[in-house]
Amino acid sequence: IKRNPHESEFHQAVKEILDSLIPVLTKHPKYRQNGILERILEPERLITFRVPWVDDQGTVRVNRGFRVQFNSAIGPFKGGLRFHPSVNASIIKFLGFEQTFKNSLTGQPIGGGKGGSDFDPKGKSDGEIMRFTQSFMTELYKYIGPDIDVPAGDIGVGAREIGYMFGQYKRIRGGFEAGVLTGKGIGYGGSLARTEATGYGCVYFVNEMLNSKGLSFEGSTVVVSGSGNVAIYAMQKAFQLGAKIVACSDSNGYIYDKDGIHLETVRRLKEVERKRISEYVKEHPNAIYVEGCQNIWTIPCDIALPCATQNEIDESSAKLLILNGVQAIGEGANMPCTLEAIDAFLKAGVLFGPAKAANAGGVAVSALEMSQNSMRYSWSFHEVDDKLHAIMKNIYRNSVRASEEYGAPGNLVVGANIAGFLKVADAMLAQGVI
Ligand code: NDP
Which residue in 91, 105, 255, 285 is a FRET match for 73, CA 20 to 30 A apart? Predict the structure, then answer.
């Protein structure tokens, strides 16, 4: 805390991991020696840079860009870029730290990184988005490459932004290094099923948890926060598995449709028209719109999938969900539940799928995109989806196994943290003090 003041999100992520690692450190002193913890907590580097651009009125604007290259023990740095006004060093470091363990859990050879900017894409024209992303890449290109660091999307960064960044990278570097970014359009090196991967993967993971207790999505009531990339495809897969999704949100408020949300309307409004979720009720007057997001968790449900942003479920929301009979939580977003909320869920015996396991499907398919780019080959949607499904089952099994081996059976927070840590720590030990 002394070394990184004002980084509350980073402290929160570190505390969650370190608490989980106590049984590993007790059983295997080698992980307490060799400076493993000290090194794993310190990013290999954190790059910050100026991003100047010109808005449609001709005014010069300046944002701040970030890239954290957290850990490359098991592969090139890999992790998304977030464009949101809340972005700062603490947010980027918490995301990059988490990403290191998540990427390890996928079983693929990718290290941890993350980046972004405090640029707010809301209300910006297409031209402004392009000029900003080009300026961002004009600095970022110096630090990335298919075998060095491979960024992707996150909040505020989707196929459009990745496309502009890829174009600018190609223009500066020359050649066609497809593997430098993932989440690309299908026509120029993107992977089928990457758009769906995080949401689908989250539902596959929650399904494994439910099945272990003889439960399923069939006939269940589901509340999802957000209406972005992760939320939309989590809703789609949950619907395909027989669930009724009654609520979703954006950063202004939420919609509640007791008969079940019409997903195609949400997709059109958010993906195509880039409108607010409040517009939904104009087309479906039986639904209600409520300004503000927090009360979405007052809606009774069997399964809650927080898929918007960090710290959206606090202890009081968690207690309300428990009181209303929630059976399972799947963290689609990164760190959407506070430490107190997680504690409340675990104590109440609610099935809890932590982010670094439950939302690892996105980065897993990004790694599959890198493989396809290296092979100059494309797998079909079903091939990628089958691989994703197998990866999510594997993450679930490995997390359960680690939770049992280290004395916390069923606690997948502990299980995922330990399983992710061991592979990275072993690779660091093998590579010496670097
Ligand atoms: P998007 O930008 O596509 O969607 C984000 C959604 O969350 C939007 O509906 C947005 O509302 C809402 N939101 C954003 N910030 C806030 C806030 N402060 N309060 C309330 N709602 C908010 O992002 P993604 O779907 O890609 O990402 C969502 C989460 O999932 C993030 O935590 C991200 O790190 C995580 N994640 C994403 C992966 C991916 O593959 N995309 C992979 C793994 C994790 P609005 O439309 O108003 O902005």
Answer: 91
